[in-house]
Amino acid sequence: MEQIKYVTPQEAVMCVKSGDGVYFQGSTSVPEVLQQALAERGPQLRNVKVYSAFCIPRGEAPFCKEEYKDSFIVRSLFLCADQREWVAKGYGSMIPAFLGEIPFLFRSGQLPVNVAFINCSLPDEEGYCSYGISADLAVSAVESAQYVVAQINKSMPYLYGGARIHISKIDAAVECDIPPVALEFGEPTPTETAIGNFIANEIPDGATLQIGVGGIPNAVLNAIKHHKHLGLHTEAMTDGVVRLMEEGVIDNSQKKFKPGVSVGSLALGSKRMYEFLHYNKDVEFHDVALTNDPQIIRQNPKVMAINSALEIDLTGQICADSIGEKIFSSVGGQHDFMYGGALSEGGKTFIALPAATNKGKSKIVPTLTPGAGVVTTRFQAQYIATEYGIAYLRNKDLAERAKALIAIAAPEHREALEKAAFERFGYSFKRLF
């Protein structure tokens, strides 16, 4: 087998020139050694465009420093904590795009990638390295890049599917042994458990799950542990779905697209989960252009797409990417799965959120906060779940939607919401009582 020629991190990043576009792999497998080495070259570089999405490293991105503000231009594709304050200060920005369409932007050259930095597994016997727990945008970025630089990481899990690269395609490699960032999610709160139970009651046996990350998704997964013959076609995998795979609840027996196999694009969770995924042929990771394609998603039966929001207005407009004018994240795959799930035979789409913030402010509001972005339009909203129940919005007019949403708002906010709804919708709202 062809041998990998290793270089130092400092040598590996010398390929980057001023004005280049560079991509860093995301999820919990950010190539941090290479990030740091490139940041140290900051004084030698100008206007290097940095593309990344959903990055969860061990700290802030090393190129997000004021002395590097002219060296690196952050163009986030899904903002996370490592770059959030940098963007909030105006030094970087976010490119609005559905996650499933970003591979096209790379491949078409609309977002030019000169250098792709990735964090790979050791090669298999045929010389292929896996992209590990972050296939998502890495596949298309590598295909589009002129130069590919890899951390060959002894601690990166090897996953099957379409996210692999032969060592002959790697232009420079750095050897390391750095475990992916491990995330532990605590037990769901009573509020999250209540929301999870409401959603679980809507999920039939034989459904195909797409589910996000955090307390509410974990609560849903806890509540469906007695379901049968579930499938998994998702963007992100977490410990909760691994438990259901181990227990046979998720067996993928009724899926139409890749039956018998759990399909995902990225993973974030515990060390135990990463060990479960390593060389596991029951799981495949693929390019997000495939996992998030609504026309592929719809092929599976009874798709249950479960996503979250920051706030929702009385007409069903859903904000999930910003707090007012401050960008918090991005659309991610929410639209892709809300659309694909709606097209699936027997499919349902859910937006789950607590009725109020930790400070007691209602998350169901008369109108979205000024500056807030609409991630899912009112034309797509179906089921909205809080700890007070589920509102079904599809087929309802604006006044009927307002009444349904007020019924699942925090009780202390319902009177004010009713007043706002009457002022906005007039007699069409009043006659519902």
Q: What would you say this structure looks like, in words?
A:
The chain has helices at 9-12, 32-40, 81-88, 102-107, 138-144, 190-200, 215-223, 239-246, 271-277, 288-291, 294-297, 334-343, 398-406, 411-425, 427-430, and strands spanning 21-24, 48-53, 72-78, 93-94, 115-120, 128-130, 147-153, 160-161, 164-166, 172-176, 208-211, 231-232, 236-237, 262-264, 266-267, 283-285, 303-308, 311-313, 318-319, 322-323, 326-327, 348-352, 364-365, 383-386, 389-392. It is of the alpha/beta class and 433 residues long. It has two domains: 9-176, Glutaconate Coenzyme A-transferase, CATH 3.40.1080.10; 190-430, Acetyl-CoA hydrolase/transferase C-terminal domain (Glutaconate Coenzyme A-transferase, 3-Layer(aba) Sandwich). The strands form seven sheets. A seven-stranded parallel beta sheet has the order 4-3-2-1-5-7-10, sandwiched between helices. It has a six-stranded mixed beta sheet with strand order 12-11-17-22-24-25, sandwiched between helices. The longest helix is centred in the C-terminal third of the chain and has 15 residues, at 411-425. The chain starts with 8 loop residues before the first helix and ends with a helix. The mean pLDDT is 94.
Beta-strand proportion = 15-25%
**How is the main sheet built?**
7 strands, parallel
Instruction: Summarize the amount of helix as a percent range.
Output: 25-40%
Structural class by SSE content: alpha/beta
- Per the principal axes of the C-alpha atoms, what is the gross shape? globular
CATH class assignment of the largest domain: Alpha Beta
Task: Briefly note the CATH topology name of the largest domain.
Answer: Glutaconate Coenzyme A-transferase
Number of strands: 25
The overall average pLDDT, rounded, is 94
Quaternary structure annotation: single chain
- Identify the CATH architecture of the largest domain: 3-Layer(aba) Sandwich
Low-confidence segments, given as residue ranges, are none
Biggest sheet: strand arrangement: 4-3-2-1-5-7-10
Number of helices: 15
**Radius of gyration, Cα only, in angstroms?**
22 Å
Number of domains: 2
Distance between the termini: 75 Å
Query: Which superfamily, in CATH terms, is the homologous superfamily of the largest domain?
Result: Acetyl-CoA hydrolase/transferase C-terminal domain
